[in-house]
Amino acid sequence: MNTKTALLSVMIAASLAGCAGNRNAYRQPQIEPSLVEAAQDDRGMYLGLLKQMQAQGAHYASLAHIDAFRQRFGDSPELRILQANALRETGDASQASAIYRGLTKGTQAAPAWHGLGLVAASSGDLDGARLALDNAVRADPLNVAYLGDLGFALLQAGQIEQARAPLAKAAELGPDNIRAISNLALWAMLSGQPATAESMIQRANLPPPTRAEIYRLAQTLRPPVAAANATSAPLATSTTVAAQQRSGTATISRPPGSMLDRFSPSTPTAQEATP
């Protein structure tokens, strides 16, 4: 599986359908032409339009409008970040990286490091990805997406214990963020806490495609020893959960009073908790 696709795959249901697709696919922006024309006369509105295009996956269209924006309003670090993001999404990692590297010391340092982390992940450089994503989190420690991507990169590297803190932070900072809850549920599965993971999945009411992706990633990322001992079922049934609990599978300790405790079946208030 493509590393970049894995890094971004535990997301909200719409993202599951879109992010893992072909980076070079053409997308028709779902924006009325009249709104585009109106936005071009206002710098803030035009910048927002560019972000909306990219959120919809219309990266080639955003590149064209970035050129038009620059002609009308001039250049800025924020505009260069959007350009680098679009270049990365359309397969021009080299040019995107050059722009990102030029922005790691200024006001756009956090998204620049994040972009470099995604570029490194797409090339299979997990060490580089973890370093860049860690720098992104240091620059913007409250960004749920950066924390989630750092935690996922650590999971990919088999550093399950180290992934706990950024993923728990993301879930607690964004308790209604489906991506953050999904990533934390994946961590719980990989750390030997399937019942806690199932409680998170159920109470967050995750859609079937998201659940399936969590189970698939749990099988893909599970350490070899754990995978050899795992049953063929994707940790999704009460029978599997009970069997693993009876077997005394080693687990990583949960931080007290954390998001994990809210969903732990052994916690009296778990049945009342909602993400």
CATH class: Mainly Alpha
What is the domain total for the residues?
1
Overall number of strands: 0
Radius of gyration: 20 Å
Q: Taking all residues together, what is the mean pLDDT? A: 78
Count every helix, treating DSSP H or I runs of 4 or more residues as helices.
17
Low-confidence stretches: 1-22, 230-259, 264-275
Order of helices and strands: HHHHHHHHHHHHHHHHH
The CATH topology is given as Serine Threonine Protein Phosphatase 5, Tetratricopeptide repeat
The outline comes out as elongated
CATH architecture assignment name: Alpha Horseshoe
Strand content: under 5%
Write the CATH homologous superfamily: Tetratricopeptide repeat domain
Overall SS class: mainly alpha
Note the gap between the termini.
30 Å
- What can be said about the biggest beta sheet? none
Helical content class: 55-70%
Provide structural commentary.
The structure is a single chain. This protein is mainly α. It has one domain: Serine Threonine Protein Phosphatase 5, Tetratricopeptide repeat (Alpha Horseshoe), CATH 1.25.40. The chain has 17 helices and no strands. Helix 4 runs antiparallel to helix 5 (59-73), helix 10 runs antiparallel to helix 11 (160-173) and helix 12 packs parallel to helix 14 (208-221). The radius of gyration is 20 Å and the shape is elongated. Mean pLDDT is 78; it is low at 1-22, 230-259 and 264-275.
Helix and strand topology:
Elements lengths: L2 H6 L4 H6 L14 H7 L3 H13 L3 H15 L3 H13 L3 H9 L7 H14 L3 H14 L4 H13 L3 H14 L4 H13 L3 H10 L4 H14 L2 H6 L8 H9 L12 H5 L12
Label this structure with key terms.
elongated, mainly alpha, disordered N terminus
